[in-house]
Amino acid sequence: MAKMGPGVVVTGLTLGALAAVSLLAFQANGAQDRAGGAKPVASTSSSTGGPTSAAPSASATPTAPALPASSGSGTRVVYSVSGHYVWLIDPKKNPQVTAAFPVTPGSVEPNPGSYSVYSRTPSGTGTDQKQIEHVVRFAQQSGVVFGFSATVDGSTASADPKSKTGGIRSSRPNGQLLWDFAPNGTKVVVVA
């Protein structure tokens, strides 16, 4: 019987530990999806009737507008051009609307229709030169790229009407929800 040196034993133990840690990391990566998925962030309506973001609290009740009837079917992100609102829909969950939140549109709006997420970037610089994160792109029209993002500083100021930008901005927590919900290939339905 051949003797094993201490180096072989240490190497074997190290490889076993790495495999166990990798397995645990892989399992933890999808744990939020299995634990009930994204939760809606509370919102309220301002005195002008437009939606404004509010910090979630234990007593907050979401007051999102109803999901538009013409918003398609299946797992999807729905964006209302006129309402400046986003809904995250998963028909396998109860309720199917896993989150709904207000957004600030860019200076140009996408045409109503059905699209797919084709590109995602964890962070970058927006056309307004602001640092952004959780960039989820779904359409290009007339040289304008349309996508969802959040500014790192948390601002959701209106876009400069002099520049053509298709960046649809949300709060950072809602940007994270959308990022987690919409990998490449996810359907995005834009309604009027």
TrEMBL record:
Stretches with biased composition (Low complexity): 42-74
Taxonomic lineage: Bacteria, Bacillati, Actinomycetota, Actinomycetes, Kitasatosporales
Keywords: Signal
Signal sequence coordinates: 1-19
Annotated region (Disordered), positions in chain: 34-74, 103-128
Protein name (database record): Secreted protein
Biased composition annotated in UniProt, kind: Polar residues: 113-128
